[in-house]
Amino acid sequence: MSVEFRVLGRLEVRARGTTVALGSLKQRLLLATLLLNPGRTVPIRRLVRTLWPDEPPMSAVANLRTYANRLRQLLPDGAQRITGRQAGYELAVRPGELDLHLFTERADAGRTALSRGDHATAARHLGEALSACRGAVLEDLAGCEALAASIAPVEELRLAVTEDHFDARLGLGEHRELITPLREFVAEHPLRERPRAHLVTALYRSGDLAGALAVYTDYRRVIADRLGLEPSPELVKLHQAVLDRDPGLTAAVTVRACSAPVPKELPAPCRSFAGRGPEAARLQALLCGNTPAVAVVHGQFGVGKSALALEVAHRAAPMFPDGQLYVDLRQATRVPHRLLRHLGASEVPHAADEAAALLRSRLADRAVLVVLDSATDPAPLRELLPATGPCAVLITSRAPLLLDGAEHLRLGLLSDVDGVELLTRLVPRAEAEPGAAARIVQCCHGVPLALHIAGAILAHRPTRPLAWLARRLAADPLSELSFGGESVRAACATAFGAVDDPLAASAFRLLGRYEVCDAVTAAGALGADVLETEAALDHLVDLGLAEWSDGDTYRLPGLMRLFAAELSPSSWSRTSCR
């Protein structure tokens, strides 16, 4: 049966040319959330938070099940489309059924053509993409705060594609035809700079010099009043060109040439990625909402920083048509030189500072996403970050990094619910042993690396029940969580190896013997100054090795505490230290 799912405008489902009545607001919110995550299991807690943002009722999960069953009855093939799992619900969408898929496919083709200067092809593909849009994304559900983070990147992409379409049509000489739609777009989005530049160009080419200058003056006033900012150097340069009656403004719009293929270097995302809904939404909004954007994901060993970064990078990739670059900083050297070559630079300066300066210049006017994995030192990164432009940089690191303008996201441990979801994706038979699966998750203390190792052990021993591994992990998790060259104990040792301060190393070993410990008592046990001990403990927190607990005390997360206990002198007692 032919089915159309529409999210570009009001939420709508059509089957055989007839609109399907979707029922109550909560049923529509449930369907919208599933459609924004097609083919992916959306956790129950996220769905509950979406449907009841203020105070979920005690019967929320049961009510959610009822809404899902009603949607199964309303949708064609609904019983096969909506799958309920222990961790959440998943909606199957077939090729060609979702308007968002058609939109991104046509938009990618159009932006690729625009990057090589083919305005006619770009205008055609981008126009086809925009024809799928009936309005703002899920405009009838825009008031739902829980959906806002998921809607924002898609809506930003729709607006950016609209601006690309203006770009392509200006390149075809359609300046007179664009004046009215550009004025309407600017009126709806007064803070967006790119369509202002388009309108200035269109008016100037149409012979309206005063109108072009008025558009610039109005924009400068608006952003000064609302944001306290000045126009970008690019728009200032365009304004000056209008004042100078620059002959170049009468030519077709200059579009970035791309002699080399657009780089698409992102490694494949983790197929078993689970949970992290709020974190992924926030990170995606950060990358797509600022220009330029710099985001740093930091947290303890094995917590899934790289997996989250790659998941979000793939989701955000359509917003960066000039390419996606990826560097594992644990292995790479001469990073600016590498990035320049992958951006198609024919000549790369040998000197590091000159290469970094050229890289900033190359990124300044390109919509490129750069993923820098496993950073440790912020100093070399500062030279790579562009000051302006539509690019974005996503960095993973154990500790926060001092980078001007960067937004930081601390990634915590997985909840038990998300841990069970991850284990079930790794080992589907876990659904049949929910109790044993929960015990394994608890023994892994919410560390995704540990759960991946546990999943690999079970996958390698398909006849073993989960209860078998649960018993072994309860006895000695650090020894058991080792498989195929991956080991939790080795990962803990690597993380501890980053501690270069002797007092911090001693404090780490001390925390292995205590559930919680404050700086005063730790200083007494270590025979050290209290302020120095507090600084050492804070250093462990910065490295992702320790956590603050109850304001003025410190603790080690589960597996790290077991590792630290192995290093601790036996004379220290296992007590609560306050």
Silhouette: globular
Spatial extent as radius of gyration: 27 Å
Bin the helical content.
40-55%
CATH topology of the largest domain: Serine Threonine Protein Phosphatase 5, Tetratricopeptide repeat
| Regions with little confidence, pLDDT below 50 for 5+ residues | 252-259, 570-578
What is the terminal-to-terminal distance?
66 Å
Structural class: alpha/beta
Biggest sheet statistics = 5 strands, parallel
Average pLDDT works out at: 85
CATH superfamily of the largest domain: Tetratricopeptide repeat domain
| CATH class (first level) name of the largest domain | Mainly Alpha
Please tally the helical runs, counting DSSP H or I stretches of 4 or more residues. Answer: 26
- Strand portion, in percent? 5-15%
In CATH terms, what is the architecture of the largest domain?
A: Alpha Horseshoe
Strand order, biggest sheet? 8-9-10-7-11
- Total number of β-strand segments? 16
Provide the number of structural domains: 5
Architecture overview:
The chain is α/β, with parallel strands linked by helices and 578 residues long. The protein folds into five domains: 3-91, Orthogonal Bundle (Arc Repressor Mutant, subunit A); 99-250, Serine Threonine Protein Phosphatase 5, Tetratricopeptide repeat (Alpha Horseshoe); 277-410, P-loop containing nucleotide triphosphate hydrolases (Rossmann fold), CATH 3.40.50; 416-491, Helicase, Ruva Protein, domain 3, CATH 1.10.8; 499-567, Winged helix-like DNA-binding domain superfamily/Winged helix DNA-binding domain (Arc Repressor Mutant, subunit A, Orthogonal Bundle). Helix content is 52%, strand content 10%. It is built from 26 helices and 16 strands. The strands form five sheets. The protein has a five-stranded parallel β-sheet, sandwiched between helices. A three-stranded antiparallel β-sheet has the order 1-2-3, with no helix packed on it. Strands 4-6-5 form a three-stranded antiparallel β-sheet, sandwiched between helices. A hairpin with a 5-residue loop joins strand 1 (3-6) and strand 2. Helix 17 (416-426) packs parallel to helix 19 (448-460) and helix 18 runs parallel beside helix 20 (466-475). Residues 252-259 and 570-578 have low confidence and may be disordered.
